[in-house]
From TrEMBL:
Entry's Gene Ontology BP terms: thiamine diphosphate biosynthetic process; thiamine metabolic process
Taxonomic source organism: Eremomyces bilateralis CBS 781.70
Top-level taxon: Eukaryota
SUPFAM superfamilies reported in the protein's UniProt record: Thiamin pyrophosphokinase, catalytic domain, Thiamin pyrophosphokinase, substrate-binding domain
Protein name: Thiamine pyrophosphokinase
Length: 259
């Protein structure tokens, strides 16, 4: 099966390589430091609903200096969801005053990510096509591995919704068995050349096109050969795989300015 990915759509590319912007894009913020507020605000503008997973509300609140109260009010999430053991009292009070819904979910069998995902997919919000997950990769290793586990589980539950893991340095997403076309617009400056195809969910055999070090029917596995620190050399790259793999590419520090 052939699939086409347009990650630049989420980074401010209005045309998206000729693609139509998905109608149900949502943003899920996780509890990680926000080192690139410019990137967060770009994702915010490109989403229809925004939800903070518990302590992510602290990070959003702290992204603004005390003298930026009006700007902070521009970036109010639709909802804060979780067991609420991480959100600070002052932050919870602030968002409650601003009429942000604060939802307590008493379920110790699921993470705050899982709780927020259930909310985003509920009838409260418009039907979902894509969910951008901001944060979660780059902090504690157990949380990062846990998030990679969570996106696999979410895919099994709902294979029609695409999850995009976005940190201050990279965007990552699942590639399913078959031919995967990725429109990187590399020459326009959305990404650096650094990329990887990672068999984190099990061994796979891959064929690539558009990389500096392309491979053909190449067996890859954790503990064996892995394509990390490869280089994109074309605007469109292709990864054909017989098993699910994770694709990751480094986001440019200065994104193109859109007119």
């Amino acid at each position: 099966m052939r699939r086409v990915f347009h990650p630049t759509i989420h980074l401010g590319d209005a045309k998206g390589s000729g693609a139509t912007r998905p109608s149900g894009v949502k943003l899920l913020l996780l509890n990680q430091p926000i080192y690139r507020p410019d990137l967060l605000f770009q994702l915010w503008e490109n989403s229809l609903a925004r939800v903070c997973a518990d302590g992510a509300a602290n990070r959003l609140f702290d992204a603004f200096a005390p003298d930026q109260s009006e700007t902070r009010r521009t970036y109010l999430p639709d909802e804060i969801v979780g067991d609420l053991d991480s959100i600070r009292d002052d932050v919870k009070s602030y968002y409650a005053r601003e009429q942000v819904q604060v939802t307590f979910v008493d379920d110790q069998e699921s993470t705050d990510f899982g709780k927020a995902m259930r909310s985003l997919k509920s009838s409260t919000y418009q039907a979902t096509t894509d969910i951008m997950v901001f944060g979660g990769i780059g902090g504690r290793i157990d949380q990062g591995i846990g998030l990679l586990h969570e996106i696999l589980r979410e895919h099994h539950h709902d294979p029609q919704t695409r999850l995009w893991l976005i940190s201050e340095s990279s965007i990552s997403f699942l590639l399913l068995p078959g031919e995967n076309i990725i429109e990187t617009k590399f020459s326009q400056g959305y990404f650096t050349h650094q990329a990887g195809v990672l068999p984190i969910y099990g061994p796979a055999t891959i064929t690539t096109q558009g990389f500096e070090w392309d491979v053909n029917n190449w067996f890859t596995s954790m503990g064996g050969r892995v394509s990390t620190s490869n280089h994109i050399v074309q605007d469109t790259v292709c990864v054909t795989t017989d098993k699910m793999v994770l694709f990751t590419v480094e986001i440019a520090h200065d994104l193109p300015k859109m007119g």
